Structure prediction request, 375 residues.
Amino acid sequence: MSGLSFQVLATDGRARLGQVHTAHGMIDTPAFMPVGTGATVKALTPETVAETGTQVILANTYHLMLRPGADVVERLGGLHRFMNWPKPILTDSGGFQVMSLAKLREVREDGVVFTSHIDGARHALSPERAVDIQRALGADIAMVLDECTPYPVDETACARSMRLSMRWAERSRAAFRERPGAGLFGIVQGGVHEHLRRESAAALTALGFAGYAIGGLAVGEGQALMFDTLELTTALLPEDRPRYLMGVGKPDDLVGAVARGADMFDCVLPTRSGRTGQAFTRRGTVNLRNARHAEDSRPLDANCPCPACTRYSRAYLCHLVRSKEILGAMLLTRHNLHYYQELMVGLRRAIGNGTFEAFAAAFAGEQAAGDIEPV
Prediction:
């Protein structure tokens, strides 16, 4: 294997069924990647994450750079061995932290200088260093360093930010060392401005990447505007490369994004929600902190085969959540990831069968029906 490869197996409208082949195995797309920022998916062991059907996880360059350090991970055999995850890993470059840690960073032409949120030390992250750190970690899919543009932002500032990201993308591409089963993704920026998205996509495709991410969305612009921008952007990207919508999202976001040609997704929502008592089900979201569940003997979702649904009642899950027991976070996080991965399986099956539109309609109908009535 000379590098990362991608194959489109079927299409249904704009929706695509595909496979990404990496050094650590295959990723079926559409794919959802749980977020394991610090080399762990919170509240779950790697074995449990795999049992949910997860094929690939995301880890974060910035956070691992600070702790324990990419050099430490490299000496210990790379991120896969370090965290006991033998399947593919995608590493973000730290670009999202350029936005989320705005008070702790300084953006320059040569890169970003962060003040560590851990100990106040200053760390410089250039495009070249971001790529080198991801190589040391052993990522199957690495990302270029970019500036994630916030929303709202005026068009002039958005254009300036996007063009800086494109210069960084060129430097990241030059710094990347090709190796078997690994690849570097470019990141399209440009906010919600069509001409900026077109300029960004053209710059990246001219450089040539193993895959292309759509960044700078799901940052407050709303679903309708996100979908419009996504539909425009995916049409500008090569058909034979995977398309990764970063930081998305809720289940209906995922279905809508697949309909618009996106292949890969990541979001903290299923895991973070699991730790705060919110479960995603076929009938919408369920808040287990709500008192109406306190004496409900029924399962969370009678059609779900995960342990939270097959072994415990809503009443017990409600008790765990309201008592702040760790087991509650573990069970609900596992359930949420299982639900997300089952949704991906359903999407893939529907695209392969040519029934995506019917699947999306049935999904929307179940979600609109709402949770089962309390006893």
Notes: The mean pLDDT is 96. Residues 273 and 279 are 7 Å apart (CA to CA). The longest helix spans residues 326-353.
